[in-house]
Write a structure and sequence with these properties.
Layout lengths: L7 H10 L7 E2 L5 E6 L2 E2 L7 E8 L2 E12 L2 H4 L11 E8 L9 E3 L6 H10 L17 H23 L5 H10 L1 H13 L3 H7 L3 H11 L10 H17 L19 H13 L13 H10 L16 H10 L9 H8 L23 H15 L8 H10 L5
Parallel strand pairs: 5-6, 6-7
Antiparallel strand pairs: 1-2, 2-4, 3-4, 4-5
Amino acid sequence: MLSNKMRERWLHDLWAGQDWNGWPLRTTKGQSLYVLDPGKWNQDQGPDFLLAKIFIDQVLWVGSVEIHLRATDWFRHNHTVDPHYFPVILHVVWMQDPLHPDIPTLELSRFLTVPRLRELLRLMSRLGELPCHKRMRPVPEIVWKQWRCELLSHRLNRKKFGFKNGPGSFRNRLARQMGAWVNREIFESIDATISDELILAFRSDRDLVTAIYLGQSGLLSERNGDLFLDKLFVIYDKLRAKHALNPPYRQLLWMRIRPAANPLFRMVQLAQLIHGEWQEVEKWNGRTSDEIRMELKEMALNDYWIAGRRTSFSESTIDSLLINLWAYLEATTADELIIRLSDFRFENNRFTRLYSSLELAAITAADSQAMLELNEYFCQPNRCSACLLERYWCQDQAPQSI
């Protein structure tokens, strides 16, 4: 019987940890199931895990995983009519009900008892925290500076490699950045559906570019009596038919979004940047941050979009663009990148706050960018042995020879 104290988060932890102890998993229909990658834990709107890779009867599926206590929760939460859940390839539940969606389902109670589940979770570290959170403590400035330089060098090489992947690469990076943390991958996929030829042909017309991006985002689905939006809808409808535009299947996420990261306004800002040819690398290179900042602040959107707003681009948006794009275009070494990033404020977010126990002094964007790289490419994939901080703590705790 299902325990009243059962928590869905328990199942999230178990799925993320994938500690099955060699148990041969099978779906409720008897299909063999092997998890190659449990996916990315989604803390925002949509399925619980994204981009999972699972073999079902030796066929590889890539998609989302949704987790519930009971299978009927799928209907109770209205997932059947929510486009965010269309890519779900596996439904993980504690208990299967007579009424359930027609999706491959893993019923965990077939493999675990509640006491065994509690024991597993007790042995597992909290997956929402860093693997080293129990050992983390202040480090000497010289240790962090050495590791920061290596992390930024890694980040610099990775981003510079990405900028060289075709003429539309920087435009795609610009779209990703404008999507903010929650919608960055969705903005990137929307931009990828718009060809360079289409942008080149129509970028001089601001309303036309705006109609293309809003239409591909699913934000111009029908007329609603708003004269300006109806005008954009008509423009997009003609372009969609003429150029065979197909929006991506992924939908924008709106839950837990701060006003500054509103997807509609961010998409309009992206269209304005494309109209202003900011996707051209030459627009950024050879200029100071103050010059770029001033031009972005003075950039004018259509009055329809900036009603009640002081400027088109907020200071935080401009800082984010400069930190994540401009700083990587001309810097040739990690030391030069540190100098550039040191002019910007520390990025205080839910990822950088994980490292507060390091108690670093006089932190800047150079430190926060290093922390983001550390979190995504070392902490999340549990590459602790490659982390300089972990080696320092282990060495510091080792018994001293007499």
